[in-house]
Amino acid sequence: MSDAVVIVAPGEHRLAPHEPRRPEPGEALVHVHAVGICGSDREVYQGNRPEGYVRYPLTPGHEWSGTVAAVGAGVPSTLVGRKVVGEGFRNCQVCDRCHAGESTLCTAGYEETGFTQPGAMAPTLTLPARLLHVLPDGADLTAAALLEPAACIAAAALKANARPGERVAVVGTGTLGMFAIQFLKAGSPAELLVVGTRPDRAELSRTFGATDFRTKDQELPDDFDVVIETAGSADAARTAAGLLRRGGRLVLTGIPAPGAEGLDPTELVVRQLEVHTVFGAPPDAWAHTVRVFGAGLLDPLPLVTHELPLDEFPHAIELVGSGDPKVGKVLLRP
Questions:
Q1: Of 215, 167, 175, 222, whose CA–CA distance to 195 is shortest?
Q2: I want to staple 143 with a disulfide (CB 3.0 to 4.6 A). Which of 65, 256, 300, 307 is the partner?
Q3: Which residue has the higher pLDDT, 233 or 19?
Q4: Over the Cα atoms of the chain, what is R_g?
Q5: What is the purpose of this protein (predicted)?
Q6: Is the separation of the CB atoms in 249 and 268 below 8 Å?
């Protein structure tokens, strides 16, 4: 068996021999096909992820796709050989929040694949089978490796509850922004505006269904029904709120840096804006994502620009943080 990436401590990693862990009762062993890298993996490597949200030494990797190779006792054997993706949050299943389906708010504390539990930057991943979502047999596993960020946006889309014919907008043109366009487009909006800082994303935005693209320094409307913010800056949150009509619905998914000053509470109250937030994806958002992907309404592949072997992990981390407009989604292939 080949190696796994291990981050020993911030800024220090090695490739270590990987031994698949046999699935215990309730678990499944997955052969990893591809694993995505996002900003939070970079945080783990650099050591600036908030305390309590990472545990070293660690094999990272929370965005992944693969094929079930074996299952433990109590898990249907029909899962073996199936293409799958999997939820990251290791919820307790017995607290009030878990019973309400809000597993990302589990009161038992934070545990997540690739942050506090071994992740997918390895040939195999063993995890609770209840976290798996089965894909259609013909699914493209390279595209499916992006379904974790897509599920976070699915959670935002479900909270936004955009109705057909409403005027909707997306702020931010990274991976999450491109997924937000696709989810909102699937709901048949009257207009779909995208606001970003990168004019080079206009064409891709329109390909995914945007009817208009503007940079934030252009004149912007203030009468939209729904806005999903994906950029992760206080400035973006302000811009997003400004796009809404009175009583409009705002969903924030980005996490700004500490100390950011963003939304004005007076404006939120006076304009009666409805504000939702998303951190991670609960099971219903995952199920929604897999359904939409299976129906051909979600196309992650155009977002992938680099596929590298696991031993190029440092280069992949560099690419993700480079700010180069030619770098989209970076995948590692075990």
A1: 215
A2: 300
A3: 19
A4: 20
A5: Catalyzes the oxidation of 2-deoxy-scyllo-inosamine (DOIA) with NAD(+) or NADP(+), forming 3-amino-2,3-dideoxy-scyllo-inosose (amino-DOI).
A6: no
| Ranges of each domain in the chain | 3-146+300-333, 151-277
Task: Read off the pLDDT of residues 44-69 as tens digits, 9 standing for 90 and up.
Answer: 999 999 889 999 999 999 999 999 99
The arrangement of strands across the sheet holding 191-196 comes to 212-215, 191-196, 167-171, 224-229, 244-252, 274-277
CATH architecture of the domain covering 151-277: 3-Layer(aba) Sandwich (3.40)
Which H helix or E strand runs over 265?
helix 265-270
Q: What angle do CA 111, 334, 16 make, to 5 degrees?
A: 70
Give the integer Cα–Cα distance in Å for 212 and 69. Answer: 45
Measured in whole angstroms, the distance separating CA 141 from the mean position of its chain's CA atoms is: 16
- Give CATH for domain 3-146+300-333: 3.90.180.10
Q: What is the pLDDT of residues 248-289, one digit of tens each?
A: 999 999 888 777 778 899 999 999 999 999 999 999 999 999
Residue 1 scores a pLDDT above 70: no
Q: Does the pLDDT of residue 16 top 80, yes or no?
A: yes
Cα 233 to Cα 248: distance, rounded to the nearest angstrom:
20
Average pLDDT over residues 220-239: 95
Q: Give the length of the chain.
A: 334
The residue type at 230: T
Tokens of 229: 């913010």
